[in-house]
Design a protein that fits this description.
Elements lengths: L25 H14 L5 E6 L3 H11 L5 E7 L2 H11 L3 E5 L9 H12 L4 E6 L4 H8 L6 E5 L6 H12 L4 E2 L1 H15 L8 H11 L4 H8 L3 H14 L7 H14 L6
Helix pairs in contact: 5-7, 8-10, 8-11, 9-10
């Protein structure tokens, strides 16, 4: 794997071990982020790329390198490597796949959420293979500033990615139009769906049921006790009026209801 190099901005303080930039608060945070954006005029935007697929990683890195105003300073293959690269290189922008090792679920979302606290002035562009409204909702749950969400099939045009990187670097947002359409459609479906009766946690449990996970596996993934998972599942059955059949039939029917409603998110 190529290991791109490039000096970080002169005068930048050394990163603290194990953390990113100290998270300022209130007016101090606003002034600090604003000064970072204003001082970068004429200086390349530094980028860390995270993608576990070698071919995709090489392809995206080449797209980034088409713009002389961007400097790729590190590449990562999984979440721990990404966290380490951000800690060491303190880039202006992270471009990351949503699903990476170790669990191939939502590592990119986890990273974007963590960086809001540890690196508040840093932009994040998430790359996804699929139109997944629930991931977009998670990404934007704490605000859209400095966040981008692009589908990978848009990356045949380097300008799409370069534009997104430049936008999030200055605190703006870029959301793929197809994802926006999916969010609107998901919301419209949800308003007339029986799933609107479920809590966000119950929807999350039900979504894991659609993956074929048993109660123990759901508990492990969601960091819950088996008893809590069972309580959520019983509540799901009751709210969906599936209380008079065998559990196996109720699980199947609940999953079918979820899938037939387009995997809506609350």
């Amino acid at each position: 794997m190529r290991q791109p190099t490039g000096p970080h901005r002169e005068g930048a303080p050394a990163p603290l071990p194990g953390v990113g930039l100290p998270p300022p608060t209130g007016v101090a945070a606003v002034l600090r982020v604003r000064s970072l954006w204003e001082d970068t005029e004429g200086v390349p935007i530094t980028v860390v790329l995270a993608e576990d697929s070698y071919l995709m990683r090489e392809g995206v890195s080449r797209l980034l390198e088409t713009d002389p105003g961007l400097e790729l300073v590190a590449m990562s293959e999984d979440l721990p490597q990404l966290v380490g690269a951000v800690r060491d290189r303190r880039p202006d922008v992270v471009v990351t796949d949503i699903r990476m090792p170790p669990s191939h679920t939502d590592e990119g979302i986890q990273a974007a959420e963590s960086f809001r606290d540890t690196n508040p002035g840093m932009g994040v562009v998430l790359l996804s293979q699929y139109d997944e409204p629930e991931y977009a909702l998670k990404l934007l749950s704490r605000g859209a500033g400095g966040r981008g969400y692009l589908l990978k099939d848009r990356l045949f045009d380097a300008s799409e990615l370069v534009h997104a990187v430049r936008e999030v670097a200055v605190g703006r947002s870029v959301i793929d139009p197809q994802v926006v359409e999916g969010l609107v459609a998901s919301r419209n479906r949800f308003e007339t769906s029986p799933l609107r009766l479920l809590s966000p946690r119950e929807l999350e449990v039900l979504s894991r049921m659609t993956e074929g996970k048993n109660n123990e596996a759901i508990a492990t993934v969601l960091h819950l006790s088996i008893g809590v998972v069972e309580k959520h599942i019983n509540s799901i059955f009751a709210k969906l009026h599936l209380g008079q059949e065998l559990d196996v039939h109720r699980r199947v029917k609940a999953v079918l209801i979820y899938l037939s409603n387009g995997n809506p998110s609350p």
